[in-house]
Design a protein that fits this description.
Chain lengths: ~400, ~180, ~375
């Protein structure tokens, strides 16, 4: 076995097909539960990992710890009553969830929405995207071991949340966007504060960039780690920044515009492998960073158009008080911060859905994990899970 | 590329697989595919027919009762047969190349035992978890799936919650749910 | 450990007639009971310093990090929250001491003691001024290096005895990291030894008096081409030895939950905590004594800070100030930088720090011969 003093290594496959090493120096794989109570699985995700020293040989994600079967709940409540449940799948982007649900109901029931309501919907969606990406940025820094970016991110997120509080009274679960319109119009002076937020945010963004993005250690930790080639990303149905980080330019806002996204101009950032390989953790991270700036750009245009083209108070559409969806079915996707949030609705003429399927982007993005993790180190596993940026509320629904 | 063109290309690539093309009353037109030809159709969608539907968006399991779409408490009239209802797997695909979407449906009538569909996880790895979800929540079987386990519910959960005939459990492991 | 160090005083030469050493030496003249009393007094003194400084540093860390992160930090208990750390200490003391059922009980209980004992003993060897040194032996630096590396044994014991896989990972990382970084660490110490021809930190400080503006003889200015990079290497190795970010892999919170002390609670946990902050000071003090002029101040002649009581006080103040600046830098680094991965830690040590330290050592030998 020993040649020239070197330890020889060869692979054998046991009956169950799992990799086992036979070495001169015997090692044993260690099976560890990473989660559900682990600081960096971003919620109650459990990954059962087999580790050969620091290197993972197998990873199996287990989820469902906060499964509430939102889809079954939907079948038992009427269309408006389900809106608060949508807040709770991706709780970091509740506005976007509200919007996704409202769009599918509107599509199925042929509802029309007032232009002002549409502009405001775009504004809240983009603002919430910024808030969500700020969490992604902050927690990613924390996964890598830098604590400060998290609190920097929360500083602006705090402002964003207080803006939403002024708008609808809630700070996390908004239930603001309803099928057919909005809960209420924006309060006076809200747009001015939002403009100030945009100005300040762009300055602070530079700070984040200096603190984390260009940090040598951060780059060393994230470049060439967790590389998702474009083919793999498509295979596993990845959407959002994970797909764009792999270089596939696909953003629903640009490709299949909904609301008035075709009337505003913005760029769709894609990963180009600036620091290492295309589709590595750094690319996914940086796509999110640039998206925040693009969201500010969209916000500015939306505020301008909304103030110029519409008059305050005109947010009522053509919906009746009791909402009924005829016998039909519809699919509507929106670009959530984490990818395409799809709702598939089957209506049966009553006031509650016959079947509502929620296609959560985190659920699909997470499935790439078992392909990605083997062969990496424990520290990389944390970096990879962080870069995919999942919200377990949405994975489990 | 329009829905009709996609349909024509598919029918050319896999003749006889598409049972019907439906545009009403659904907001998104869809193709009903026969169960046995689904894998071929998916292969064509992804690789052969030059369509490039490279992304599987979702797989939805739906349980249609015979009373679907009828008025509340409606009964079949004399001589009218509503049938036993059916199970349906709805596949949403997206092409990032063409920027097009397509919806496929596979139907299995009730009363023929458990609904077993062919797996497409060999063609779209994303289908792995979607099919597990459909199995977990609706009790669909997927023939040839590498690892068909429950994904969201507990491993020892009884029943499939999204079925229309699902009975809510009165208790869970000794904890009352009432 | 401390007691042992004191009992060994009979065989090592005691220096400095004034201050604590003098009193202890005087007590030792009264035979066995005198020795014992001297040992107890010395231990109380040491333990007092060794736990007071960490309390100050935890407060500083929380306030400084609060400043850096746009928040307040502790500000309720006492003025500026100064007593917060004390309150935390009391809380930790009264918490339940949980020992996991499957743990190796004896090792689990002993490990924190070993970790802390090594560190407290090291305190005894750090000179704060010419006479404010509890034990001044001609082997000072050597003993400190030995005592500091005791820690790794305690950590491995803690990690293994916890019977927790994350703890084990933490302990293995600690072992790998500590053993590796001992090399550049030791080489930098050798460099100082070569420069001064002594292993005594007190003598090193004394030797750095005088020169241009009274800073010319500080080692980093005296031998700028080799001692300055060596000081930087020593500081990085010191970060690794104290498990401070970016080298906090053994307790990497986001990866290993809490690393080797995951299972520890209450007072046993606070031992690890105290040790981390105490070692920050010890290592900073060594760095200051070796490279940054010890207690010598610019413009103040070396004779002014030795001999008289006032001068000695100034010396102690200077030494503490310089060490605190380094501790502040450690805190600053911790709240700015992300964590390095284990393979990068290793490659940094073996590919960069060790060769640089070697080159500096050889360069210093040449420099001293040429000078």
């Amino acid at each position: 076995m020993t040649t020239g003093g070197r330890i020889q290594e060869h692979q054998e496959h046991s009956a169950s097909g799992e990799r086992e090493f036979v070495l001169d120096v015997r090692t044993q794989d260690m099976e560890i539960n990473m989660g559900p109570q682990h600081p960096s699985t971003h919620g109650v995700l459990k990954v059962v990992i087999r580790a050969d020293g620091e290197i993972l040989t197998k990873a199996t994600p287990h989820m469902g710890y906060i499964h509430r079967c939102a889809e079954k709940i939907a079948e038992n409540v009427n269309y408006d009553q389900f809106v608060p449940y949508t807040d709770r799948y991706d709780y970091l982007a509740a506005m976007n969830n509200n919007l996704g649900y409202a769009l599918v109901v509107e599509k199925a029931a042929d509802l029309e929405v007032a232009p002002r309501a549409t502009w405001i919907r775009m504004i809240v969606a983009e603002l919430n995207r910024i808030g969500s990406h700020l969490i992604a940025f902050g927690t990613y820094g924390m996964d890598i071991g830098a604590f400060t970016p998290f609190l920097y991110g929360f500083r602006e997120r705090e402002w964003m949340m207080s803006l939403f509080e002024k708008l609808c009274g809630a700070r996390l679960t908004y239930s603001f966007v309803f099928p057919g319109g909005l809960a209420n119009d924006v309060p006076p002076g809200w747009f001015d504060e939002l403009k100030r937020f945009c100005d300040v945010f762009e300055k602070k963004w530079v700070e984040y960039d200096k603190l984390l993005t260009r940090n040598k250690i951060f780059i060393e930790r994230t470049k060439n780690v967790g590389v998702i080639p474009a083919g793999m990303a498509l295979d596993y149905g990845l959407t959002g920044p994970c797909l764009r980080g792999s270089g596939v330019r696909y953003d629903l806002r640009e490709s299949q515009p909904y609301l008035f996204y075709d009337q505003v101009s913005f760029d769709v950032p894609v990963g180009i492998g600036e620091m290492g390989t295309q589709g590595d953790c750094w690319d996914r991270y940086y796509v999110r960073m640039i998206e925040m700036l693009q969201s500010v750009r969209i916000l500015r245009q939306c505020i301008e158009r909304c103030e110029k083209d519409t008059t305050p108070g005109e947010i009522k559409g053509n919906r009746k008080k009791t909402l009924r969806v005829p016998v039909t079915e519809a699919y509507a996707g929106v670009e959530n911060p984490r990818g395409e949030l799809g709702h598939y609705l089957v209506g049966d003429g009553s006031d509650h859905p016959y079947r509502l399927k929620v296609r959560g982007p985190s659920f699909c993005n997470l499935s790439v994990l078992q392909e990605l993790l083997p062969g990496t180190m424990i520290a990389d596993a944390v970096a990879i899970i962080g870069s995919i940026d999942i919200v377990l509320g949405e994975v489990d629904r | 590329m329009s829905f009709e063109e996609i349909q024509a290309q598919l029918e050319e690539a896999v003749p006889g697989a598409v049972v019907e093309a439906v545009t009403e009353p659904s907001k998104d037109p869809y193709l009903v595919v026969s169960k046995d030809r689904l894998v071929e159709v998916c292969k064509a969608l992804r690789q052969d027919a030059g369509l490039g539907f490279d992304l599987l968006v979702s797989i939805t399991a739906v349980d249609y009762l015979p009373t679907f779409g009828k008025k509340k408490n409606a009964k079949p009239k004399e001589g009218e047969d509503w049938g036993p209802g059916h199970f349906e797997a709805v596949y949403h695909f997206l092409s990032t190349v063409l920027n097009e979407r397509i919806v496929l449906k596979v139907r299995i009538p009730k009363g023929e035992g458990e609904p077993i569909f062919p797996t497409i996880s060999g063609i779209y790895p994303a289908a792995d978890w979607h099919e597990r979800e459909a199995y977990d929540l609706m009790g669909f079987g997927f023939e040839g799936h590498p690892d068909l386990r429950r994904i969201l519910c507990d491993d020892d959960w009884v029943g499939h919650p999204l079925r229309k005939d699902y009975v809510f459990p009165k208790e869970f492991k000794g904890i009352s749910a009432e | 450990m401390t007691v042992l160090a004191f009992l060994s005083n009979g065989t090592v030469e005691l220096q400095g007639a004034s201050g604590a050493t003098g009193i202890l030496k005087g007590l030792a003249a009264y035979g066995f009971w005198g020795y014992l009393l001297a040992a107890l007094v010395g231990f109380a003194l040491l333990f007092g310093i060794a736990s007071a400084l960490p309390i100050l540093f935890t407060w500083a860390e929380r306030r400084v990090s609060g400043r850096m992160q746009q928040r307040w930090g502790p500000n309720r208990v006492g003025p500026f929250g100064l007593i917060q750390a004390l309150a935390d200490g009391i809380k930790l003391m009264f918490k339940e001491d949980i020992i996991p059922a499957q743990a190796d009980k004896f090792l689990f209980m002993v490990a924190p003691g070993i970790v802390l004992a090594g560190m407290v003993s090291a305190f005894a060897l750090v000179p704060l001024s010419d006479s404010a040194v509890i034990v001044d032996t001609s082997l000072g630096l050597y003993l400190i290096a030995a005592l500091l590396s005791l820690e790794v044994i305690g950590v491995i014991m803690a990690g293994w005895a916890s019977n927790n896989k994350w703890s084990l990972f933490g302990a293995m990382r600690e072992a790998a990291q500590m053993v590796s970084y001992e090399i550049p660490f030791g080489l930098c110490i050798l460099l100082a030894v070569v420069s001064y021809g002594s292993l005594s930190l007190r003598e090193m400080s004394l030797a750095q008096a005088g020169g241009f503006l009274n800073v010319g003889n500080w080692l980093i200015f005296h031998n700028p081409f080799f001692a300055l990079p060596a000081a930087v290497v020593f500081f990085i190795a010191a970060l690794a030895n104290t498990k401070r970010a970016p080298f906090d892999l053994p307790e990497a919170e986001s990866e290993l939950v809490s690393g080797f002390h995951t299972e520890y609670s209450g007072f046993r946990f606070s031992f690890f905590f105290l040790e981390e902050y105490a070692s920050m000071f010890v290592i900073s003090a060594i760095l200051v004594s070796m490279f940054l002029g010890g207690w010598n101040l610019p413009f103040v002649p070396g004779s002014a800070v030795t001999g008289s009581f006032g001068g000695e006080l100034l010396a102690v103040f200077t030494m503490l100030l310089k060490s605190f600046v380094l501790v502040f830098v450690m805190i600053w680094i911790r709240w700015t930088l992300p964590r390095i991965r284990i393979d990068q830690v290793m490659s940094l040590c073996y590919k960069y720090l060790t060769p640089i330290a070697f080159a500096c050592l050889i360069g210093t030998c040449w420099w001293e011969l040429a000078a």
